[in-house]
């Protein structure tokens, strides 16, 4: 029999299983790895935003003392890769198997790799590589890139479009006729650099079974393996991917960076090869959050009912597709906010430019869309003289509401409860008839103004738009009459969010054994089955279902006296649907998480500095598997979103990055973070979630920027429609305001 206990391990603040190793320095991150006979690699980047490589001369680099090899496009068996589509060369240059691979499309395109006995030799030899370019037209504005006649970055993409989605719901003419107030707005959001703690690094070698093995940080080990195998033209079984400790991700490790060339070098040279990027290499070498241009108008009746929304959403994809089709797919849905609106027209575009590629970043299109949607809702509230909480509650999605794609919101919609809880836990009161905000106490210094703002949002949990969402787990029970040890095998990535601790907790819960008896083997494609990505706020949801299913099978085998008792299980999530190409009609997602935030800021009108003083973040997580880790996710998201909204200004001109180091690209420090972040953890069980749990990683990021913008407006009377709201931009707008 299993050691069943009455103790529940769900909802407990179990100590993170990786905590001790990380705080003592015992945990090995990719940059810490080494191997006997190891070589070192340096990558030659393009350095120009758009050009054809006419000649690539590596001869001098090859002769440099200590250099073992210089690899170029001609050395790559299948010179293409991509997470969604194979539109990027592994190495750009002549002699490639891929047509068009002699063209570089952004400054971080990889042209050659130098492998040497020492890192110093590799770096020195890299500077000896000579590239002769035929420069091509550079286009960096996505609006201009869409125009007829604009230079094409990819010959097979008309108007430089990665994708175009439509939503057509209701009757727009009737909707505008019903509107008593119409608010128009144009919103622009900037790039954001992930700034994970450890820049890209890794070690590749041939393992004892002859497999090309890559140890590097990522978010989906089996997808990494698939792309490496494709580029090397090898069976997937000949490639192994292992994740060591990962120094953060936030979506920035979904797309490959150093893995392909590391694998190529180890496969060619049959020796271990290591690389560690500098921060500057990391900043130009991996993707950023998509910048968006959103033009929208919202119409509402006098009583605050939103009756029509129209939006044009344009996302700068950069040089390659990366996850643009999925990011824009999310923004397409979320740009109308968590509201039931009868008449909707949305056109969303992902557009190639010669900028650094854009890709996954916490919120995945949601923060950009929420900035526009929630700002519009706050402006409607002001125009109609209705409290911002009240107007939301008059339009919020509820059970059975029809979303913009023409289908019901999945069961478990708690947007209304989340908005009410956030309001009650912050500075709003309800007098039985209407909501009212208590204004903040103003500082004695007349140059400093305080204000409060409110915003809300929702975000999908799990993959979307028809992807056959699934996740594998294996559970082994060892012992004789009692379970003495449990081995859990799961590929899910631990990128700092606590996923591996959740795996142990749900296994303990499902099996009724203490966590101390559980050994976790994770993130090694030779040991585990495919788990899907650590993204889309899906990991807790998918881990819970997959391990619970495997545990059930293992217990059945144990009851049949199999020793060890092994359960292997693939969880298959409910089906979703892609957007109809003409109307957008679909069931886009499995389920959602809901969030609302209230923010208090202080604006220094003499410097333009925005200080975020207090944040109340109400998040429905369904069931908090580990409440302390949920609090950490909320607090971390709030600060990261604060940086996105007010500080982090990624500057590029004509395809060149001007903020390629942390002295020019600023992020929040301990001196910038709010005085108080109050997490309000709500637990309304999701009918489809394991033990009712939903994801939480992305939700607290979504409403921060519009809530800050609303608070700044409350303090100054001025709306800010461009992110980030840097001190310079705030001061300029304050000085331009009438009467200043």
Describe the protein.
The chain is an alpha+beta fold and 740 residues long. It has 3 domains: 112 residues, 2-Layer Sandwich (Aldehyde Oxidoreductase, domain 4), CATH 3.30.365; 189 residues, Aldehyde oxidase/xanthine dehydrogenase, a/b hammerhead (Aldehyde Oxidoreductase, domain 3, Alpha-Beta Complex); 327 residues, Aldehyde oxidase/xanthine dehydrogenase, molybdopterin binding domain (Aldehyde Oxidoreductase, domain 4, 2-Layer Sandwich), CATH 3.30.365.10. The protein contains 17 helices and 29 strands.
CATH superfamily of the largest domain: Aldehyde oxidase/xanthine dehydrogenase, molybdopterin binding domain
Per CATH, the class of the largest domain reads: Alpha Beta
Strand order of the largest sheet: 3-5-1-12-9-10-11
Describe the sheet with the most strands.
Answer: 7 strands, mixed
Give the CA-based shape.
globular
Unreliable runs:
1-6
CATH architecture of the largest domain: 2-Layer Sandwich
How much helicity do the residues have? Answer: 10-25%
Q: Which helices and strands, and how do they pair?
A:
Layout: H1 19-24, E1 39-45, E2 51-57, H2 59-63, E3 67-71, E4 103-104, E5 110-116, H3 119-126, E6 130-135, H4 142-145, E7 161-169, H5 172-178, E8 181-189, E9 201-206, E10 212-216, H6 221-232, E11 239-242, H7 259-269, E12 273-276, H8 279-285, E13 288-289, E14 292-300, E15 306-318, H9 324-334, E16 343-352, E17 358-359, H10 366-384, H11 388-393, H12 415-425, E18 428-430, E19 435-437, E20 448-461, E21 470-479, E22 483-490, H13 499-511, E23 518-522, H14 539-559, E24 565-572, E25 591-604, E26 610-620, H15 627-646, E27 652-653, E28 656-657, E29 676-682, H16 704-716, H17 727-736
Parallel strand pairs: 1-12, 10-11, 13-17, 15-16, 22-23, 26-29
Antiparallel strand pairs: 1-5, 2-4, 2-6, 3-5, 7-16, 8-14, 9-10, 9-12, 14-15, 18-19, 20-25, 21-22, 21-24, 25-26, 27-28
Helix pairs in contact: 6-7, 9-10, 10-16, 13-14, 15-16
């Amino acid at each position: 029999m299993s050691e069943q206990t009455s103790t529940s391990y769900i909802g407990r603040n179990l100590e993170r299983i990786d905590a001790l190793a990380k705080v003592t320095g015992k945990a090995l991150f990719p940059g810490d790895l080494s191997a006997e006979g190891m070589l070192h690699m340096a990558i030659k980047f393009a350095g120009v935003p758009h050009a054809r490589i006419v000649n690539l001369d590596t001869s001098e680099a090859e002769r440099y003392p200590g250099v073992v090899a210089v690899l170029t496009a001609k050395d790559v068996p299948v010179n293409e890769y991509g997470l969604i589509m194979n539109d990027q060369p592994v190495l750009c240059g002549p002699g490639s198997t891929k047509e068009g691979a002699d063209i570089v499309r952004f400054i971080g395109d990889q042209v050659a790799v130098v492998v040497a006995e020492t890192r110093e030799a590799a770096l020195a030899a890299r500077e000896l590589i000579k590239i002769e370019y035929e420069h091509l037209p550079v286009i960096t504005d996505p609006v201009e890139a869409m125009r007829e006649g604009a230079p094409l970055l990819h010959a097979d993409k008309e108007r430089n479009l990665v994708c175009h989605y439509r939503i057509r719901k209701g009757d727009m003419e009737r909707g505008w006729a019903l509107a008593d107030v119409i608010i128009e707005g144009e919103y622009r959001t900037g790039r954001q650099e992930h700034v994970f703690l450890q820049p890209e690094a890794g070690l590749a070698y041939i393992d004892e079974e002859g497999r090309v093995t890559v140890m590097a940080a990522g978010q989906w080990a089996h997808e990494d393996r698939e792309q490496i195998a494709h580029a090397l033209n090898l069976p997937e079984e000949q490639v192994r991917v292992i994740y060591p400790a990962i120094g953060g991700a936030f979506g920035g490790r979904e797309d490959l960076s150093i893995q392909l060339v590391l694998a190529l070098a180890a496969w060619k040279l049959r020796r271990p090869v290591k690389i560690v990027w500098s921060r500057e290499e990391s900043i130009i070498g991996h993707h950023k959050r998509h910048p968006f241009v959103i033009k929208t108008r919202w119409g509402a009746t006098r009583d605050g009912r939103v009756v029509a929304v129209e939006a044009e959403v344009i996302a700068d994809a950069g040089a390659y597709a990366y996850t643009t089709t999925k990011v824009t797919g999310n923004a397409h849905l979320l740009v109308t906010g968590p509201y039931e609106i009868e008449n909707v027209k949305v056109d969303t575009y992902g557009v190639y430019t010669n900028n650094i590629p854009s890709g996954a970043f916490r919120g995945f299109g949601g923060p950009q869309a929420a900035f526009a949607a929630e700002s519009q809702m706050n402006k409607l509230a002001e125009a109609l003289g209705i409290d911002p909480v009240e107007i939301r509650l008059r339009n919020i999605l509820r059970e059975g509401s029809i979303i913009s794609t023409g289908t019901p919101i999945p069961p478990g919609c708690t947007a209304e409860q989340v908005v009410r809880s956030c309001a009650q836990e912050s500075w709003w009161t309800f007098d039985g008839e209407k909501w009212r905000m208590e204004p903040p106490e103003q500082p004695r210094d007349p140059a400093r103004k305080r204000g409060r703002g409110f915003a809300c949002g929702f975000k999908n949990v799990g993959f979307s738009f028809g992807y056959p969402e699934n996740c594998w787990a294996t559970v082994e029970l060892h012992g004789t009459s009692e379970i003495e040890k449990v081995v859990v095998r799961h590929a899910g990535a631990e990128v700092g969010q606590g996923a591996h601790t959740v795996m142990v907790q749900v296994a303990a819960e499902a099996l009724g054994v203490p966590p101390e008896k559980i050994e976790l083997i994770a993130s090694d494609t030779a040991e585990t089955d495919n788990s899907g990505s650590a993204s889309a706020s899906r990991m807790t949801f998918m881990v819970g279902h997959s391990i619970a299913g495997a545990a059930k099978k293992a217990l059945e085998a144990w009851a049949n006296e199999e020793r060890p008792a092994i359960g292997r299980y693939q969880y298959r999530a409910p089906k979703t649907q892609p957007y109809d190409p003409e109307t957008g009609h679909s069931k886009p997602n499995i389920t959602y998480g809901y969030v609302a935030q209230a923010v208090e800021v202080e604006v220094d009108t003499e410097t333009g500095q925005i200080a975020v003083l207090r944040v109340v973040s109400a998040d429905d997580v369904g069931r908090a598997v580990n409440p302390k880790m949920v609090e950490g996710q909320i607090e971390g998201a709030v600060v990261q979103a604060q940086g996105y909204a007010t500080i982090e200004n990624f500057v590029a001109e004509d395809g060149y990055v001007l903020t390629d180091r942390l002295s020019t690209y600023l992020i929040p420090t301990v001196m910038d973070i709010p005085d108080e972040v109050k997490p309000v953890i709500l637990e309304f069980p999701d009918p489809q979630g394991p033990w009712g749990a939903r994801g939480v990683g992305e939700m607290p990021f979504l409403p921060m920027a519009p809530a800050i913008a609303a608070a700044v407006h409350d303090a100054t009377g001025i709306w800010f429609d461009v992110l980030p709201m840097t001190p310079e931009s705030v001061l300029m707008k304050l000085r331009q305001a009438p009467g200043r």
